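Fold this sequence, please.
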Amino acid sequence: MKELIEGIARALVDQPESVDVRVVEGEGVTVFELSVAKSDMGRIIGRKGQNAQSIRTLLNAVGRRRGENIVLEIVESAPSERQ
C-alpha cells in the first residue's frame, strides 16, 4: 500500500524526490502519512481537494476489501527531509 501511495504522489508532483510515506499502525487503523515539498502541496491536494479525495477513496476501497481502516494524512515535509 505504501508503494502505491508513493507512486501516485510521485506522478503528481514536481519534486518526486521529496515524497515520503510513513506508516503508523494503531488499534484498528493504519495511518499513512504522506509528506511532500511545500511547493507540491497544491498538486497533491488538487483543485477543490479532488486529488486528495481520489487517493483517499482508493485507499478506503482497498482497506474495506482487506477489512482495515485506512487514513491518509498529507503533510508538508520538513526542509531537512528534502535535502
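The longest strand covers residues 29-36. The mean pLDDT is 92.
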